[in-house]
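Priority: medium. Attachment 1 of 2:
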């Protein structure tokens, strides 16, 4: 059972510092500067923070991405809920808890590539989801939850039976619970981004297992077909006592 956070590794420390600094700058902009320099934000009242965040051009906004703001597929991971600090704090803690061990196993460069790539792929999933689901295209997405959920999925692939703390639950069960809660949040119209969370889980699983490779997909299909054929095969046993004596040789073998 895992009772303590792992040692703080260089990449995780860098992610924590950059995320924390970006959050402080975001809070400074949203709650003080934006209202002074933007009449639209000042006039929007309590909900003006959404407009202020969008004016930073860092949060993921599908229409802006289609206008060329491609960097938002990465920078949205630095922007968190400016109304309260818990969104940023928990994402940093989860990155430390689950990411530090991967960095120790994979190395700093490989871990950073995984983290950034999965976060960007979760952002791509947000774009696809927004194009398919009415009412989702114009929504802002912010936070590193997509990348963090990818870490959850990778952890479930590599350490499926490890028990977490403080809740005694296996990692693979924990990830299934997360997926279920993500669907529930979507059904009740929660502010949590269904697309980013599910996109993170999917990208983490695909990259960790290698199932994104076409060759791996073909091999899995062939294996499934082979298992299906084997399941249809019947094993026939011959009872020697019921065999006609005339069909036997002197040594008791069946003659063909």
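Attachment 2 of 2:
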């Amino acid at each position: 059972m895992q009772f303590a956070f792992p040692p703080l590794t260089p990449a995780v420390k860098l992610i924590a510092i950059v995320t924390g600094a970006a959050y402080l700058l975001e809070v400074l902009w949203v709650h003080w500067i934006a209202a002074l320099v933007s009449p639209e934000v000042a006039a929007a009242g309590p909900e003006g923070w959404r407009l202020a965040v969008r004016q930073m051009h860092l949060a993921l906004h599908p229409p802006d991405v289609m206008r060329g703001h491609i960097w938002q597929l990465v920078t949205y991971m630095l922007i968190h809920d400016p109304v309260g600090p818990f969104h940023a704090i928990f994402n940093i803690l989860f990155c430390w808890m689950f990411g530090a061990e991967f960095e120790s196993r994979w190395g700093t460069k490989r871990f950073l590539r995984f983290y950034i790539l999965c976060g960007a792929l979760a952002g791509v999933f947000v774009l696809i989801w927004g194009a398919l689901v009415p009412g989702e295209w114009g929504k802002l997405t912010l936070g590193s939850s997509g990348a963090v959920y990818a870490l959850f999925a990778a952890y479930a692939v590599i350490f499926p039976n490890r028990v977490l703390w403080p809740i005694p639950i296996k990692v693979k069960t924990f990830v299934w619970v997360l997926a279920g809660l993500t669907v529930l949040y979507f059904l009740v119209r929660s502010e949590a981004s269904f697309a980013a969370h599910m996109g993170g889980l999917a990208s983490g699983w695909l990259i960790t297992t290698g199932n994104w490779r076409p060759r791996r997909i073909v091999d899995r299909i062939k294996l499934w077909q082979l298992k299906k054929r084997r399941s249809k095969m019947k094993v026939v046993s011959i009872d020697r006592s019921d065999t006609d004596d005339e069909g036997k040789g002197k040594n008791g073998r069946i003659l063909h």
